[in-house]
Amino acid sequence: QVESMKGMVNAFSEYARAPELKLARVDLNELVAEVVELYRAQESGAALSMQIDARLPPLLGDRGRLRQVLNNLIANGLEAVEGVPGGRVTVQTQMNSGPKGNTAVIMVTDNGHGFRQELLARIFEPYVTSKPKGTGLGLAIVKKIAEEHGGSIEADNRPEGGAFVRVVLPLAALQEGAQPARDIA
After folding, report:
1. Edge-to-edge strand list for the sheet holding 163-170
2. DSSP code string of 43-55
3. What are the backbone angles phi and psi of residue 128, rounded to the nearest 5°?
4. Is there a contact between 38 and 67 (Cβ–Cβ < 8 Å)?
5. Average pLDDT in the 128-154 region?
6. What pLDDT score was predicted for residue 44?
C-alpha cells in the first residue's frame, strides 16, 4: 500500500507541476518507432503494431513530454487488451490538412472492452479511472501535454469494439523549410 501511495503522490506531483517545455525539432515517426520497439521488447500477450505516415514532417515539440504521451497511451492500450484473445494495439501517425493549417495526429487504438460509457465524458479529468491499479492521472497528463503543445485530444469507443485516443498537434511552427520525414515503417 505504501508503494501504491508513493506512486500516486509521484503521479500527482508530475501532473501538478508544469515543467517548462524544451522545444526542439521532433521527428514524431521516429519517436513512435522507438517507443513501440521498447514495448515490443517486453513480453505481452498483445500484438503491437504501428502505421506511420511518411508525409509527416518534423514538428516543434518537447521530445521527452511527447514520449510520455506515447508511453501513457500505449501502456493504457496494452492494459485494455490484457486477457483479450487476439488483443491488438495500433499506434498511428498521420498528417492532416485543415482550415487551421497542417496537423500531426497520433492515434492509439485497441480492441479491448472500451471505455465505460459513464466515464467517457470525464476520461481526461484527474483521478477518473476504471482500472483497479491506476491513479487516474495518465490521460489527464496526456491532455495537459497535448494542450501545452497547442494541440487537442479526444477519446471514444470504436463501433467494432475497443477504444481510441487521438492527439492532434499543430505543425505550423516548422512548416517553412521542414524536411520530409523518412519512411520508417
Report:
1. 47-51, 88-98, 101-110, 163-170, 152-157
2. --SSEEEEE--TT
3. -95, 115
4. no
5. 85
6. 75
- pLDDT-based confidence at residue 128 (cuts at 50, 70, 90): confident
- For residues 72 and 26, give the distance between their C-alpha atoms in angstroms, rounded to a whole number: 18
Percent above pLDDT 90 for the chain: 61
Taking the C-alpha atoms of residue 17 and residue 6, their distance in angstroms, rounded to an integer, is 16
Residue 32 contacts residue 106 (beta carbons within 8 Å): yes
Model pTM score: 0.82
**For residues 10 and 107, what is the distance between their CA atoms, to the nearest angstrom?**
27
* Strand pairing report for 47-51 and 88-98: parallel
Predicted pLDDT at 150: 94
Cell of 44: 505481452
3-state SS class at 24: strand
Give the separation between CA 14 and CA 16, rounded to whole angstroms: 6
